[in-house]
Amino acid sequence: MRNSEEWLLRAEEILELLRNVENPFTNMDIVSEGLVTKIVVEEEKVTIYVAFARNTPGHPFAMALNWAIQARIIRDMVKVLEDKLGYFEIVDDASLQRYYPLEDEMEV
User: Fold this and answer.
1) Phi first, then psi: what are they for 45, rounded to 5°?
2) What is the CATH number for 37?
3) Do 42 and 34 touch, CB atoms closer than 8 A?
4) Which residues pair with 29 in a beta bridge?
5) Rounded Cα gap, residues 29 and 43, in angstroms
6) SS3 state at 55
């Protein structure tokens, strides 16, 4: 079993990888922008919490516009992490919605 310092290092490594993911709207990396709020590393999986819901205005039109940006960010996160992690989930930190990129979108 790993000690807590090793888990922390693992989370820091994941954060560094996620610095390569850019928000296409702001051109900032998602870590510096504050969209990645927490990373939980467990024995069998990693859960990455993102701040999408609380940074999206509640109006349906704004939500619809943001969906495409969020989908792109999720797809890019998967590209950066898929060959470096085992099972991982991406979860909204406010709504607890889980994001699953479509298989055909990941190949774009």
Assistant:
1) -155, 165
2) 3.30.300
3) no
4) 22
5) 28
6) helix
Q: Which amino acid is located at 27 in the chain? A: N
Per-residue pLDDT of the chain (108 residues), as tens digits, is 455 555 556 899 999 999 999 999 899 999 999 999 999 998 888 999 999 987 776 767 777 778 889 999 999 999 999 888 888 999 999 999 998 765 554 444
Give the domain extent around 98.
4-106
Bridge partners of 46?
41, 88
Separation CA 62–CA 43 (nearest Å): 38
User: How far is Cα 83 from Cα 33, in angstroms, rounded to an integer?
Assistant: 24
> Domain count of the chain?
1
Which ranges of the chain would DSSP assign to H, the alpha helix? 4-18, 60-81, 103-106
